[in-house]
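Write out the 3D structure for:
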Amino acid sequence: MVRFNLLLFLLAFQLSQSQDFRVTGTVLSQGQPLTSASVYIENSNTGTSTDIEGQFTLSFSNIKNPKLVISFLGYKTQIKKINSESTDLGTIELELEEALEEIVVSGTLKAVSKRDSPVPVEVYGQSFFKANPTASIFDALENINGVRSQLNCSICSTGSVNINGQEGSYTMVLIDGFPIVSGLSTVYGFSGIPQALIERIEVIKGPASTLYGSEAVAGVINLITKLPENTSKLSVDSFFSGWGEVNTDLAYKYQLSDKTSAILGVNYFNYSNPIDNNKDGFTDLTLQDRISIFNKFTIGNKFSIATRFVYEDRWGGQMGWLPKHRGGEELYGESIFTRRFEFFGKYQFNKNLSFQFSFNDHNQNSAYGKILLKADQTIGFGQMVWNKNIAKHELLMGLAYRFTFYDDNTTATFNDFSSQNMASITHLPGLLIQNQTQINPYNTLLLGIRYDHNSIHGNILTPRINYKINNSDKSYILRLSAGTGYRVAQVFTEDHAALTGARKVVFLDDLNPERSWNANMNFVQKFYLRKGAIIDFDFSLFTTHFSNKIIPDYETDPNKIIYDNLTGKSTSNGISLNINLFAQGGLRINVGATYIDTYVEENGIKTVPFLTERFQGVWKVEKKWIANDLTVDFTGTNTGALRLPTLGNLDPRPSYSDPFSILNVQLTKTWNNIIEYYGGVKNILNFVPPSNSITRPFDPFDRQVVFDQSGNALPTPSNPYALTFDPTYVYTSNQGIRFFFGIRWKYN
């Protein structure tokens, strides 16, 4: 009897704790109903959506202290506590989400909303890159329209990042706005940036030398790292692939004092599984062992400082190559040791005055067959920036200084007069003046000019003008831009082909700085559809003209790479379109396409530069099942034909590549917003370049090649096409289809 009474008591207690709820309301924005807005109970699968009048009714039970979440794509989410069984919430007004007005800094050196910036800046957040996880930022950028990660070596897998068809040496890469990645690191140091610490990536297409000086000729890629206060206490992201690649990103937030917080990031990547699927006797993918350590401190709201150390050991070459063969002629291999240290930060004196500084030291020890390269590069940078709002004007002035030291064991630092090595030292002081005028709420004008004094090449001026027109709610924006850029070339630090040892490097004259002039029209139109969808169009027309351009000549002599300033002109015209669709139900579609017409004209003859695509397309489709915490991502790239460097008229290989597509798929499962499991397949179509990308791989030291007195290869019965060993005929990775699996975990 006692047990029965106890059972009745427990049942009555359970029923007393159980409640049935009924909640109603109407969701509006600016007085208009929002159809298909999501309404659900926090941390549950119980929910509904609004009808055509924006109204909803939701009934549920057995939930303690329920909280109602009201969300709609493009609007700020609201959370309301429910205190009684029957509640009429009345009218719920949702405001536009400020995240659609991302804060950008790359276009004007000031933090402004993307929609207010007179300079067109593209912003890509973490979710964009999680759709196709990669081991380096270099590989991740291939999913951005108009940006292509160009593989420059089929043996050591070094590469560069091209913008709108321009070579990677014309792209300036920044970390938190500082010129960290340049020169040697443009080729070798782009990997190893812990992606767990990247908050977003900002992209400017077109010359930006007015703000950033030399190298910002084709555009700027600015990697913005997270602030400690915006990160989890601890997060880990690790994945492996079917080829044996293992990549791990770790981020840890810690507190040094009440005013000092810090974030530590570590990236480790390893690939040590030689594969030769194309049977040419060489590794299809470069073996790598890399560690990168990043630490960022924020002291109060005035001072931030960050450091990064990178060590990498990579090699590619003939199967069977061992470290003992390094620099010898028994087996051909390309072995690269990299040590790199970076130090950068910012001090905010007051709201108008700040000082930015950076320092990096890059040590390179490489062997390309029997050719050895030892190089050191040190770059110091400091910039004082002052800005002031005066009536309708935003005035900004900057005083900068950049010091570059470069030394190696090549002809780049060899003095013909003294017959001895002489390191290259460049001083580059500069002055920037910029004024942004808000003519009225619909028109903005930005004028800027930069003066640099290069200690070798003298005075350089780079002006620019930007004009923005928008309507009252900024649902459409028209931006007109014109500007100039310049670059002081360092061939041996930027062009890997100059170091392979397969061809002799020849300079016809002292190289002068390259100059570019660019005009750009950018139009953005955003539509908010009644059924909860947002679609925006981003359309651009651009033209860039170069003078003094340096284009490596592979054709005059197949055994040489000849460098000289172009006496004619180089022109790049193009059109670009991005379409983004955000729909209720977890569907997002991003499609982009760029058409480029690039040519070089000299002595009345037009030619297409090597490795320049006419067409590039990217796409991403994401579908989320919110109730099940499942996400499917489809990503892909399409690349048009690329002109390739063949070895003379007898070379039987095509002078253009075939157009190709790389398709990927990924499935992600999230548990309690803490753990994510993800996996998928890369390169579903199993596209790989032809197996003859390396000529005469069986004779990498040209022992069986017959040369004439001028050093030109001669056709023989065993070499009918007069070929030599050459790895420069390359345009994409040899990796075919492969699976991958990973896990992300965070602790707050």
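The mean pLDDT is 84.
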